[in-house]
Backbone:
């Protein structure tokens, strides 16, 4: 079956869920995905906004200097479970930020979230960054 992973910021108690970006939870599934969770992580860690299509302080560089880990559900720390149970999933906020770039938005509107239905778009005009996932 394999280990599943999340991107977790333990300082801010936030995480990114690869499924929300249309990616799988296995390491290889989300690390090779061009407009997926790793793209979102790049925005959160961007030190300089030069060359970044969108510069919004609530996302761009938000995680600079924080303890950020990619943690699996097999990890003995149990951080994977703690994050899902107690931390804020900021995936929608990051997806909305990424979608400000037309190229990325055009890619995201074609993708489906891994939510069991295969019907939910990663991004559409109704997605709101303030709504939890």
Residues:
């Amino acid at each position: 079956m394999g280990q599943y992973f999340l991107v977790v910021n333990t300082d801010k108690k936030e995480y990114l869920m690869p499924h929300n970006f249309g990616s799988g939870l296995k390491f290889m599934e989300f690390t090779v995905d061009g407009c997926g969770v790793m793209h979102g992580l790049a925005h959160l860690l961007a030190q300089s906004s030069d060359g970044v299509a969108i510069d919004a302080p609530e996302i761009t560089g938000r995680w600079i200097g924080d303890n950020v880990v990619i943690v699996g559900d097999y990890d003995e720390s149990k951080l994977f479970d703690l994050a899902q149970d107690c931390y804020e999933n900021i995936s929608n906020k990051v997806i909305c930020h990424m979608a400000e770039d037309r190229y990325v938005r055009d890619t995201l509107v074609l993708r489906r979230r891994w939510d069991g239905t295969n019907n939910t778009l990663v991004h559409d005009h109704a997605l709101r960054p303030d709504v939890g996932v």
The beta strands are 5-9, 14-16, 68-72, 88-89. The chain has one domain: 5-108.
